[in-house]
Write a structure and sequence with these properties.
metal-binding, 8 strands, three-stranded antiparallel β-sheet, Double Stranded RNA Binding Domain, zinc, zinc-finger, Znf_B-box, mainly alpha, B box-type domain-containing protein, 8% strand
């Protein structure tokens, strides 16, 4: 019989027993109550909980107003003598005190076995902690590697960009120099032609036929020596952008693997 004065769990005898099993007439702590309800034999038991429970009040069969004296092993229920005849006649019955002792021993073994198994795995906690630290360190290394690769790819892109710009500027310098040279040659030729034009105009006042003929030959000779300047094709420059899909960018990086 449970003792109301101590209110201590009757299974582990160490924790407060504020859960009263109506079928077993025993006090349980929270942990032993959970174990009790997980046991096949007592999974349907009902509990009264709270500080004011009175386990000294003997539970009885409300249907027949009789005390429970048997425990039905098949139904996992306490029964009175009338219930035993009416509803549990062919069932495996035992005295309720025997059943209580058996259930109590079974629950005690279950609790102790569970604690023993959990305690045997305590060293695994250290391994889990170590594994956690190792995993987190690996994650940081991978993050660093990804960032390093990203910086490397950015450097290569920047180098490519600068290379294209340098090539463009060098080509532009050569083209501008060529065009300026052609322009200067064209101006020089034009100035020479204008100079001969002035000489030609001056010949209009020469009356001496021989002297005029000689002067005209000189002008013609100078004009013939002036080369015609070919205007070059004007240079052009374009840039054809390349469309890069996001998936192609991903190919530049390594792959993550998870173990």
């Amino acid at each position: 019989m449970a003792q109301a004065a101590s209110k201590t769990c009757e299974i582990c005898v160490s924790s407060p027993g504020h859960n009263y099993c109506e079928q077993c007439d025993q006090l349980f702590c929270d942990g032993c109550k959970i174990s009790h309800l997980r046991t096949k034999m007592s999974k349907n038991h009902t509990f009264l909980s709270g500080p004011n429970i009175n386990p000294e009040v003997k539970l009885y069969c409300k249907e027949h107003d009789e005390n429970f004296i048997y425990y039905c092993m098949e139904c996992s229920l306490p029964v009175c003598k009338i219930c035993a005849i009416k509803n549990h006649k062919k069932h495996d019955l035992s005295e309720i005190k025997e059943s209580l002792e058996s259930i109590k021993a079974e629950v005690k073994i279950d609790v102790e076995t569970k604690i023993k198994k959990l305690q045997s795995n305590i060293h695994d906690i250290a391994e889990i902690d170590q594994g956690t630290h190792t995993h987190q360190a690996d994650v940081q290394k991978v993050i660093q590697a990804i960032r390093e690769e990203g910086r490397h790819l950015k450097e290569m892109i920047d180098k490519k960009v600068e290379g294209l710009i340098i090539t463009l500027k060098e080509k532009d310098t050569r083209n501008v120099k060529t065009l300026q040279s052609v322009g200067n040659e064209l101006k020089t030729a034009l100035d020479k032609a204008k100079e001969q034009q002035k000489f030609y105009q001056d010949t209009q006042g020469i009356k001496d036929t021989t002297k005029l003929l000689q002067k005209l030959k000189q002008i013609k000779s100078q004009i013939d020596q002036i080369e015609e300047i070919q205007i070059p094709i004007m240079p052009s420059v374009k840039y054809a952008k390349k469309t890069v899909a996001e998936g192609e960018i991903g190919k530049l990086f390594g792959e993550l693997t998870f173990g």
